[in-house]
């Protein structure tokens, strides 16, 4: 029962460099987290069907603030997607690193409209300490009474970088590592885009059972 689903509008709302600058919570939000250079911004462009709405780059640390994007789809779905700065940003000043940690953590732990965090891992790397730390952090914020549970969605990026025959085994290995389902994705080919949208829409619908 496939319904037509397409993005009718995607626009930049705000870039947030300090917690106090974030626009007041309104629509449901989905945040995209992961190691620097893993492909967060590229994945967002692919999801939004826009080549350059979100700035991407080959230098780790391209995204240095929280960037909020408004998106509206043909089926009436309206959401805010949030591009988070990458962690593991070896090339940036130490001072900046310590400023980013609290910004990301503050957002994840206090944003009442946050419904899901999409954690990106490179299909060739899988789960490492930073990913486990982030998952633990999200788990710790789960019991907040002020908002519905925040779902965790794991995506293996840059699927095009490994031969087709190796993709499924790689994704299964990452899935076993994380102990949850993992979606393969390529911003280069668009592979996995529909499945990810499906999961995102479900995470927002499940978290707000208003019509139940
Ligand atoms: P930060 O903003 O530094 O945290 O990085 P990011 O996670 O937003 O990564 P970004 O989207 O800027 O991509 C980093 C590099 O990886 C760029 O050179 C992209 O072109 C490349 N890249 C991203 N996604 C893919 C993909 O699916 N396939 C391939 N082959 N390259 C990709
Ligand atoms: Mg980025």
3D structure, described in words:
The protein has helices at 40-48, 94-110, 129-140, 164-178, 193-207, and strands at 7-16, 29-34, 66-73, 78-83, 114-122, 151-157, 182-184. It is an alpha/beta fold and 212 residues long. It has a single domain (7-211), classed as P-loop containing nucleotide triphosphate hydrolases (Rossmann fold, 3-Layer(aba) Sandwich). The protein has a seven-stranded mixed β-sheet, with helices on both faces. Strand 3 (66-73) and strand 4 form a beta hairpin. The protein is globular and about 45 Å long. Guanosine-5'-triphosphate binds at residues 34, 36-42, 56-58, 60-63, 85-86, 157-158, 160-161, 186-188. Residues 40-41, 62-63, 83 line the site of magnesium ion.
Present the secondary structure layout.
Elements: E1 7-16, E2 29-34, H1 40-48, E3 66-73, E4 78-83, H2 94-110, E5 114-122, H3 129-140, E6 151-157, H4 164-178, E7 182-184, H5 193-207
Parallel strand pairs: 2-4, 2-5, 5-6, 6-7
Antiparallel strand pairs: 1-3, 3-4
The protein binds guanosine-5'-triphosphate (GTP) and magnesium ion (MG).
Strand order of the largest sheet: 1-3-4-2-5-6-7
CATH class, named Alpha Beta
Q: Helical region count?
A: 5
CATH architecture assignment: 3-Layer(aba) Sandwich
Structural class, by secondary structure, is: alpha/beta
Secondary-structure element order, as H and E?
EEHEEHEHEHEH
Q: Kindly, what is the distance between the CA atoms of the first and last residues, rounded to a whole number of angstroms?
A: 20 Å
């Amino acid at each position: 029962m496939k319904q037509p689903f397409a993005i009718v509008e995607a626009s930049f709302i705000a870039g947030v460099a300090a917690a106090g600058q974030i626009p007041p919570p309104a629509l449901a939000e989905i945040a995209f987290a992961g190691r620097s250079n893993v492909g967060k911004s590229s994945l967002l462009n692919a999801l939004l069907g826009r080549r350059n709405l979100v700035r991407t780059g080959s230098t780790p640390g391209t995204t240095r603030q929280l960037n909020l994007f408004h998106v509206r789809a043909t089926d009436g779905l309206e959401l805010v997607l949030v591009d988070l700065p990458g962690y593991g940003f070896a090339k940036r000043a130490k001072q900046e690193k310590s400023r980013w940690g609290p910004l990301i953590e503050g957002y994840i732990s206090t944003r009442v409209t946050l419904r899901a965090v999409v954690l990106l891992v490179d299909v060739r790397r899988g789960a490492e300490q930073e990913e486990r730390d982030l998952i633990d952090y999200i788990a710790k914020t789960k019991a907040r009474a002020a908002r519905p549970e925040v779902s965790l969605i794991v995506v293996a990026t840059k699927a095009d970088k490994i031969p087709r025959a190796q993709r499924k085994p790689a994704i299964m290995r990452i899935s076993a590592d994380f102990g949850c389902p993992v979606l393969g994705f390529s911003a280069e080919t668009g592979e996995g885009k529909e499945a990810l949208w499906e999961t995102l829409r479900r995470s927002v619908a499940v978290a707000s059972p208003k019509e139940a």
